[in-house]
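Please fill in the sequence for the structure shown.

STRUCTURE ENCODING:
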């Protein structure tokens, strides 16, 4: 699991880097490297538990403000702690 956080708001979206480093290059995570990204958006006091499958190929994620009426791509993962329980 990678735990990431942000306070960085750009054009109404919180920007969160989700990447690994190889030398000086930033690369998206690969299957087998992690299972989840735990993202904390400080100004919103909101956690997102996101399975790696939902972020494969991405090096950054965008989150809408909680008071934004439009749905966000990651809404289904907000406070999704149940995903971490063993099956």
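FILLED IN BY: designer on duty
SEQUENCE:
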């Amino acid at each position: 699991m990678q735990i990431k956080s942000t306070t960085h708001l750009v054009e109404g979206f919180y920007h969160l880097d989700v990447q690994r480093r190889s030398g000086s290059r930033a690369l998206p995570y690969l299957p087998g490297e992690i299972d989840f990204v735990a993202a904390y958006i400080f100004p919103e006091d909101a956690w997102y538990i996101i399975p790696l499958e939902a972020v494969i190929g991405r090096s950054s994620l965008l989150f809408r403000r909680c008071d934004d009426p439009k749905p966000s791509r990651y809404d289904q993962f907000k406070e999704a702690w149940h995903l971490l329980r063993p099956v």
